[in-house]
Amino acid sequence: MKTIKIFDTTLRDGEQSPGCSMNLAEKIEVAKQLELLKVDIIEAGFAVSSPGDFESVQTIAKTIKDCTVASLSRAVKKDIDASYEALSQAAAPRIHVFLATSPLHMQYKLKMTEEQVLEHIKESVSYARSLVPDVEFSAEDASRSDMAFLAKAVKTAIDAGAKTINLPDTVGYVLPQEMYDMITYMKQNVEGVDEIDLAVHCHNDLGMAVANSLASVGAGATQVECTVNGIGERAGNASLEEIVMAIHTRRALLNADTGINTKQLYRTSRLLSKIIGVSIPPNKAIVGANAFAHESGIHQHGVLAKRETYEIMTPESVGLTTNKMVLGKHSGRHAFDDFLKELGYNLTQEELDTAFAQFKELCDKKKEVTEYDVEALVAQKAAKV
Ligand code: KIV
Ligand code: ZN
Predict the structure, then answer these.
(1) Which of 76, 93, 290, 306 is 20 to 30 A off residue 101, Cα-Cα?
(2) C-alpha to C-alpha distances, 29 to 56, 64, 275, nearest whole angstrom
(3) 265 Cβ contact list (under 8 Å, min separation 6)
(4) Is 237 marked as binding a ligand?
(5) Is the pLDDT at 384 greater than 70, yes or no?
(6) Is the ipTM of this complex over 0.90?
(7) 161: left (phi > 0), else alpha (psi -120 to 50), else beta?
(8) Element housing 324 (H / E)
């Protein structure tokens, strides 16, 4: 079974999203939690971009010992030098160099020809390699690049010494089949690609970031870049918890898993949410408040009889202590009776019938029925067990 590396960019790409900035102490807290989670690589920031980013890369590099720590750099000496200096105390430093390869970016943003782009990749990657052994090259906007040219860019970066090549879907544009085809094309057309890690970095503009990352893993990508709770530019990046649990839950099909300590997922998600002050939607996969809650009677009955009927993974596996039976108008008598027993009430059949009917009436009046409402209904009627 292959191990897929998890490259977390919550502190770099994630922090670029509006309203998600963090101060130094908060970044250190997140980085320590990412270390507990056992991510393979923490992208701590973009050292050259500001004195604050430089300081956070430097402090995280000093503090974190069990993960590789990366700093982003444009393909220029000044950026690479800043990353190198900020990472000087890292146990395992990685310089992450990027340059765009799509016609749009080369013509309008970089104002460079294809030849100039290849020359810049060669120079910047070999310079970074002269400083550290672990260099990643990202072909920005890879998914909208000409595949034959992208293959040349990938080969140039490999020859210059890059150990990881990342092919981002920078603007979240492509569909899973296209990501699959891009990875397959590189595997079939670039010599040396099997000796390095092929990574993907998907944005969520069309809600495809996780699906695109998984399609890439299916085609042979060995590193996935993602953020906690999927925070990031515009609609965000691929969500770490979804990627990790999708790979873990379907590991037999994918013949792959990650090294993540999944029991730390819930805690990591809540910590980030508290720090940046952005709440998690209740229906968010894996970490939303309703991700392991069952309200409908049919589901509750099924889960009480055998959890796998409606749970494809256990709440314990993501760090929760239990699933949640929510009482509401779709709940059945079985779950209602169970709930009462948990509260310590043992009703006769007749008492249960009356209480259940009153409970259903109450459900039509209230959005959420709490255990206090249920206690109020039955307290007069029954003695505690
Ligand atoms: O989305 C992107 O292309 C990036 C690169 C800098 C890796 O964030
Ligand atoms: Zn990005």
Answers:
(1) 93
(2) 11, 11, 9
(3) 37, 240, 241, 244, 245, 286, 287, 318, 319
(4) yes
(5) no
(6) yes
(7) left
(8) strand 324-325
Write out pLDDT tens, residues 140-179.
999 999 999 999 999 999 999 999 999 999 999 999 999 9
Decide the pairing of beta strands 324-325 and 197-202: unpaired
Mean pLDDT across the chain = 95
Which residue shows structure tokens 């408040």? 289
The reply to whether ligand 1 has any atom less than 6 angstroms from the CB of 201 is yes
224: enclosing H helix or E strand: strand 223-226
Per-residue pLDDT of 297-326, as tens digits, reads: 888 888 888 899 999 999 999 999 888 888
Yes or no: say if 248 and 259 are a contact pair by the CB < 8 Å rule. no
Q: Find out whether the beta carbon of 101 lies less than 6 Å from any atom of ligand 1.
A: no
23 labelled binding-site residue: no
Q: Rounded to 5, what percent of the chain is helix, strand, coil? A: 50, 15, 35
Beta bridge partners of 135: 95
Query: Ligand 2 centre and the CA of 360: distance in Å?
Result: 49
Cα of 350 from ligand 2 centre, angstroms: 61
Residue 223 beta carbon below 6 angstroms from any ligand 1 atom:
no
To the nearest 10°, report the CA torsion of 142, 146, 151, 156. -80
Q: Is the pLDDT of residue 381 over 70?
A: no
What is d(CA 60, CA 64) in angstroms, rounded to the nearest whole number? 6
Tell me the H-state helices in 40-195: 51-63, 77-86, 103-104, 114-131, 147-159, 176-189
Distance 168 CA to ligand 1 centre (A): 6
Q: Is the CB of 170 under 6 A from ligand 1?
A: yes
Closest Cα to atom 7 of ligand 1: 138
Beta bridge partners of 244: none
Q: Which two tokens stand for residue 362?
A: 């109450």
Instruction: Please provide the distance, in angstroms rounded to a whole number, between the alpha carbons at the two ends of the chain.
Output: 51
